[in-house]
Write a structure and sequence with these properties.
This protein is an alpha+beta fold. It has one domain: S16 Ribosomal Protein, Chain: A. The protein contains three helices and five strands. The chain has a five-stranded mixed β-sheet with strand order 4-3-2-1-5. The longest helix has 14 residues. Belongs to the bacterial ribosomal protein bS16 family.
Length: about 110
């Protein structure tokens, strides 16, 4: 049985939050899982990462493989640094409006 530590998506449309779960690799993304080991909410500022690192270490010792996203969250949780924020890219309209405001200010 290939056991994985991965994210399970919950929440409403366009308002996701994630549970970090230990699940059989053959189960669906949001399906049955073995154990809940944490939570991740990307919508809060700063992003909320709540992981039980002791349980995760036990599962990794038993042979569970963390997904790429979960491995990144584990690294962030171990470093005790806030999750890195992505730069917000302005839309074309917002960029044009900002450029027009800058020209008017001059």
């Amino acid at each position: 049985m290939a056991v994985k530590i991965r994210l399970a998506r919950h929440g409403a449309k366009k308002c996701p939050y994630y549970r970090v779960v230990v699940a059989d690799g053959r189960m669906p993304r949001d399906g049955r899982y073995i154990e809940l080991v944490g939570r991740y909410n990307p919508l809060t500022t700063p992003k909320t990462i709540d992981l039980d690192l002791e349980k995760i270490d036990e599962w990794v010792a038993k042979g569970a493989q963390p997904s790429n996203a979960v491995a990144h969250l584990i690294d962030i949780a171990r470093s005790d640094a806030p999750a890195p924020e992505k730069k917000q890219k302005l839309s074309k309209k917002a960029a044009a409006k900002a450029a027009a405001a800058a020209e008017d200010a001059e």
